[in-house]
Structure formats: C-alpha cells, structure tokens
Amino acid sequence: MLPLPSFSLLAPDRLDDVLAPLGQPGVRLLAGGTDLLPSMKHRLFKPATLLSLSRVPELARIEPTEDGGLRIGAMATLLGVRQDARVRAGWPALASACATVATRTIQAMGTLGGNVMLDTRCLYYNQPAGWRASIGGCLKAEGSVCHVAPRGTGCYAAQSSDTVPSLMLYEAELELLSRRGSRRLALSELFSADGRDGPRIERDELLRAVILPPPGAVVLHRKVRPRGAIDYGMLLVAVRRQGDGGSAVISALGPAPVSVRVEQLGDLAQAAWKASNPLSTHSWSSTWRKHMVRIEVARAVAELTTPRLAIAHG
Amino acid sequence: MPDEIVLKTTINGESARLLVPANRSLLDMLREDLGLTGSKHGCDVGDCGACTVLLDGQPRLSCITLAAEADGRAVRTIEGMAEGGLLHPIQEALHRHVGAQCGYCTPGIVMALAPLVDDPDQAVDDETLREVLGANICRCTGYTRILSAAREVLAGGDRQRGRAAGAREPSDGGTA
Ligand SMILES: Cc1cc2nc3c(=O)[nH]c(=O)nc-3n(C[C@H](O)[C@H](O)[C@H](O)COP(=O)(O)OP(=O)(O)OC[C@H]3O[C@@H](n4cnc5c(N)ncnc54)[C@H](O)[C@@H]3O)c2cc1C
Ligand code: SF4
Ligand code: FES
Ligand code: FES
Fold this sequence. Notes:
Chain A contains eleven helices and twelve strands. Chain A is an alpha+beta fold. Chain A has three domains: about 1-50, Uridine Diphospho-n-acetylenolpyruvylglucosamine Reductase, domain 2, CATH 3.30.43; about 60-210, Uridine Diphospho-n-acetylenolpyruvylglucosamine Reductase, domain 3, CATH 3.30.465.10; about 220-310, 2-Layer Sandwich (Enolase-like, domain 1).
C-alpha cells in the first residue's frame, strides 16, 4: 500500500472559490488526478493543499465558438473529447490522440486540461521514492546530478502528453484564468526549455479551456509505445499537410516539443529527423528513437497523402 | 482548511456517512475502513486495474481516486455485483469459462466489463472489448478465456442475470 502524503482538500463548486486560494503557497490543482496522485504516492510532490476542480461543472463543457471553432473545457475527460461528434468530425487527430492515452478507464478519469499540463517525465524521475534514493535522486528531485547528461546543469525530462502534438498543429490556444482576469496563450508557448520548470503559466492561473480554431487543417497523429495500452509514448509524432508542404511536431524527446516546417512534404521526414535530439530519458535507446522519428513521420506523410486514409478516427 | 472529509455516499446500494482523512484513496477507504477487500491493491498507482470499482456506473481506478470523490456519488464494488442470490452474468461466464486462475485481477475485470454488459443498447465490437480489457493486467490467463467469456455474454443475448446456462448461486457472498 502506497499512502498519499497528507494534505488538506478543497473542492469548491464555484469557479470564483477556486480562483481565490489559487496561487497561495503549497496549493496545487487537482483535475482527474491520474498524473498527480501517482506522483504524490511516489513523493514527487507534497502539496499542503489540493484544490479539486471536479465539482465545477462549467469547466467540463465542450461548446462551439462564434467563429466555428471549438472550446473544450479543461475538465472535459479524454474519453468525452474522443467520443465528441464535433471533435471526431473537425479535429479527428485530437480524437485519435486521446484514444492512445493509457487505457480507456484512465481516459474516463483523466482530463484534457491535465493532459496539456502534464509534468515532464524521465526514467530516473518517475520512480518510487526508494528507487530514486538508491541512485541519490537527480536534479529534478532530491539530487545534484542528472543521470541523463551528468556533465550538464539542465534537466531533459520529456514532455509526454499525447494530445499536445496534434493540438499544436491545429494551432490550439489556451484560455487561462485568474482573479486578475482571463488571457489567451498559444499552446506552443506553454513549454519550458528545462524539464524542471513546468508549464509556463502564472502560479495564480488555471487552464480554463482549450480553444480550437475552425476545422480544415489536415493532421495525423502517431504514437510509438512498447505495448498497445497503458504505456506513455517513447515517441510522439503529429504531421500536418499545408499545400505542397507541411509541418511536424515531434514530442517525448525533451522538455518541449520540436516543430519543423518544410516547403515540400517529401522533405518533412528528413527535416524532423535532423531537428530531433532524443536523450536517454526512456529505457529505449535514443539512437533507435531518433531513427524512428524519420520512419514515423514518413508513415504519417504516406497516410496523409493516401486519400482513403486521410481521416483517421479514434 | 479541512484535512478530514465528511462524505455521504452510497456503497453497493446502501447509503453511508463517513469521516475520512483527506488523503484517503477510495481503495483504502473501501478496504481499510469498510472491510470491503474484494477490490485489490495491485500496483497502487494506476497501472494494473485490480482496484477498479464503479463510480456512478463508470469504471474508476480506486487507488488513484480520492475517497472524497465518492461524496454524493454511488460506489459499486465486486461485493455488490451478485443480486438476489445470482451472480452477475459476467461473473457467471468467467466462472464457466475458467476466466480466472489466481483470481487477483478478477474483481477489477468484472467491474471493467460489467457496464458493457449492463447496457443492452450498446453494441460492443471486439476492438472495444479488447480496449476495455487493456486497462486490466492479468498475469495468469493470457486473456483468452476472459475474452471468450465476455464475447459469449455480449453476443448471446443472455445479459440478464440467471439466464445463462449453468447460472448458480454464489457460495461466498458473491466475491469472485
Ligand atoms: C498508468 C498510466 C498511464 C498513463 N499513460 C499516459 C499516456 O500514455 N499519455 C499521456 O499523455 N498521459 C498518460 N497518463 C497520464 C494522465 O492519465 C493523462 O495525462 C491525463 O490526461 C492527466 O489528466 P488529469 O486530469 O488526470 O490530471 P491531474 O493528474 O489531475 O493533473 C496533472 C497536472 O496538471 C495540473 N492541472 C490539472 N488541471 C489543470 C488546470 N485546469 N489548470 C492548470 N493546471 C492543471 C495539476 O496540478 C497537475 O500538475 C498516464 C497515467 C497513468 C496512471
Ligand atoms: S533529465 Fe536528468 S535531471 Fe531531469 S529527471 Fe531525468 S535524470 Fe533527473
Ligand atoms: S491498484 Fe489501482 S491500478 Fe493497480
Ligand atoms: S487470474 Fe491471476 S492475474 Fe488474472
């Protein structure tokens, strides 16, 4: 039995009552808990107070925007997003990305907001406390050395959210909310260069919704993982076709996803391969993961350019 | 700020009012506070599905759900699956197909599959069935017999309790 560390729990049912304590020292947001609670059981976080969003119904709403896009509340579950008819029709790569997260049971618990705000992950960090203690911890927790790059001073723990690559290619924006008001942030601006720093929002802000611009972008998402369920990706790839050219977002390589754009779609796989620099944050060889970047991008491009397969549903 | 929570919940059809520490997981509340030990501790961090229970009818991993989440909601555990002296059809079929060996995963598997069986309007294709089972690790059976049991219940139109051939009374209060 792995008990949770002690904390106080706040579970307000009004958004205003969530915003009031947000930003105070030791307060941490709890959404579906599928990332945070396992991490707390491993003593990676010991917040004094958990501030649960699960009793605020308005945060779970999915609704069209005035310009024909979609506004997905941060507390919408991954299963709800994946099954939403509008998402499947207009942003099918998001639906299929949600369908690759963990398992269906976890998709019914985990939220889109929690997925976007997911902590970075590393082989030497996401481990039980005793395991970490046996190697003296690492720069991200308890230690003074990075086991991935021992001579460096940075942390390379990998952004591992399954929905981020396709959301980036759909040009999603984040609606952030605090007592000070509301603001928009492009999703591509969320990520830090160092794996310790976490998402770049203010301490008193929460993610209220993910905003998708009107449909039309042709995007495809692929995930490389050891088993067909449960596992995080060792490589995540999303590809978008734009006229003769296209873009790719490659993730699970380091703290921030890598974006590339080319004029000729045929050059995309090589460009993505060149831009990718995976480190040994996973138990799978980084040489092999880099090799797979080219292959997975080429596969995605092939699928995108085969008209019959252009729309992949989750 | 509250570090103990009063919660009003329904557990296997019975309403309960409980005082639990804020950091209690739903699984520990069920097992330690209420003695409902049918739901299992496997990994305790969301990987294995042995702790699956139903919260308002939907499968939840109780090891990574706070007990407080049960406030105002209905919890169903393996102990509440037998009704009127009859096993749930999926328990019945797992028994008949020998879909359990050590049995450690079985309560979780029953709770993951039961909502599919209980919704007669839902057509469940094999892909969905496999995907649902992907949330539950079984180290013994290789899943073949679990799948054959589930396929039979889902396809056979005998989703109602006691209809399946060989339905029998539980001998142990329904704990599979
Ligand atoms: C066995 C297992 C396998 C998994 N596999 C995958 C996988 O393959 N791919 C994947 O992407 N994820 C995976 N996950 C992680 C997780 O299930 C998902 O990422 C999920 O979407 C997280 O959402 P949540 O609501 O549970 O977040 P929580 O755990 O509640 O929160 C995650 C983080 O986000 C913060 N947060 C949550 N909501 C907000 C908000 N609205 N505003 C600001 N901050 C917020 C929290 O403070 C916390 O730091 C896995 C988890 C488990 C247990
Ligand atoms: S990249 Fe280095 S510092 Fe960061 S979590 Fe991994 S081992 Fe720790
Ligand atoms: S014990 Fe809950 S998922 Fe393993
Ligand atoms: S029967 Fe032993 S783990 Fe499934």
